[in-house]
Amino acid sequence: MRQDCAIPVWKWLLAVMLLAVITGARAEVCATDDRGQQLCLEQPASRIAALSPGATELVWAAGAGDQVVAVVDYSDYPPAAREVPSVGSHTRLDMERLLTLKPDLVIAWVTGNPPEQVAMLEELGLPVFSIEPRSFEAVSGTIERLSVLAGTQTAGFAEAGRFRRGIDSLRAEYRNASPVPVFYQVWDEPLMTVNDEHLIGEMIRLCGGANVFGDLARLVPRIGAEAVVAANPEAILAGGMGEENRGWLDRWRAFPGLTATARGNLFFVPPSLVQRPTPRMLEGTRLFCEKLEIARARR
Fold first, then answer.
1. Rounded Cα–Cα distance for residues 98 and 101 (Å)
2. Per-residue model confidence (pLDDT) at position 10
3. What is the pairing mode between strands 105-109 and 128-131?
4. For the chain, which end, N or C, has fewer CB atoms within 10 Å of the first or last residue's CB respectively?
5. Minimum mean pLDDT among 15-24, 59-68, 228-237, 238-247: which range?
6. pLDDT tens-digit readout, 172-215
7. In angstroms, rounded to a whole number, what is the distance separating the alpha carbons of residues 167 and 113?
8. Cis omega before residue 190 (within 30°)?
């Protein structure tokens, strides 16, 4: 006598419900941003808006470049980012244009984007994830968190690991380097530098440099030329208004009494390798270290 092998309807329905619960649980992705706020998405983001050049680079580093639908001015790396629609500058967003692009994830800059505009995006229901990495480890961690939100963990975690290993290698290489008093010029008019809490301050320390303005209270303090003269750095490093503009160093040639000037230790470093908290800081840090080695050799 043949038995009926059909699955009871109630068992089939239960299996479907359990599968839906399991699938839904796996689809939801969560990460905590640099404001300490957890963001959960029902599924990985597929339309990402990056509201700073640094955020754009970090999303690409996380392996999610193909998912970026909006950037801001000066988002020029990688080259593919130049083809993505711009929604204004990081200091003034074109809200209407941004909304028409229908992002399902917005990557904001904690201290760089207008707070009122970021708040408006959240009020309109857009998922906002705010970042501001201030250490080498935070750069790697940010890449990993973005890759989780974008569903690109394999690529993102691999890139974060590459950056960590590169920084660790440089740290080991320069661990016992003799100190070099350094002034880093982050801007020209007004004259600005960084303190030890800034990520660039960590770059200087890793290379054996001693930031002559490291103990100032502000993250990016304004100073006067007379303060630089009084600090008498052994090396001056500066970027400029572009990747090849070395004009910021010219003013220091007018101070022959400066140790940095007297020894020819006025060094240019492309600003995008230093002033954006992205994996390219590995290359920028390597350049920093090479410049300080030159300064040591000139003693």
1. 5
2. 46
3. parallel
4. N
5. 15-24
6. 999 999 999 999 999 999 999 999 999 999 999 999 999 999 99
7. 28
8. yes
Query: Closest Cα partner for 276 from 74, 62, 53, 35?
Result: 53
Neighbour count for residue 56 (Cβ, 10 Å):
30
CA distances, 208 to each of 36, 90, 179 (Å): 32, 33, 5
- Residue ranges of domains in the chain, CATH in brackets: 30-165 (3.40.50.1980), 176-297 (3.40.50.1980)
**Averaged over 231-240, what is the pLDDT?**
93
Q: Give the tokens for residue 286.
A: 């390597």
**Tens-place pLDDT, residues 116-165:** 999 999 999 999 999 999 999 999 999 999 999 999 999 999 999 999 99
Closest CA to 128 of 43, 25, 37, 27: 37
**Neighbour-count burial for 135-162, b at 16+ CB within 10 Å, e otherwise:** ebebbbbbbbbbbbbbbbbebbbebbee
Q: For the whole model, what pTM was predicted?
A: 0.86
| Pairs from 97-100 (Cβ < 8 Å, separation ≥ 24) | 97/70, 98/49, 98/70, 99/124
Please check whether residue 205 is in contact with residue 196, taking contact to mean a CB–CB distance below 8 angstroms.
Answer: yes
Which pair of structure tokens corresponds to residue 255?
């101070």
- Chain-centroid distance of CA 211 in Å reads 21
Strands 88-89 and 92-93: antiparallel
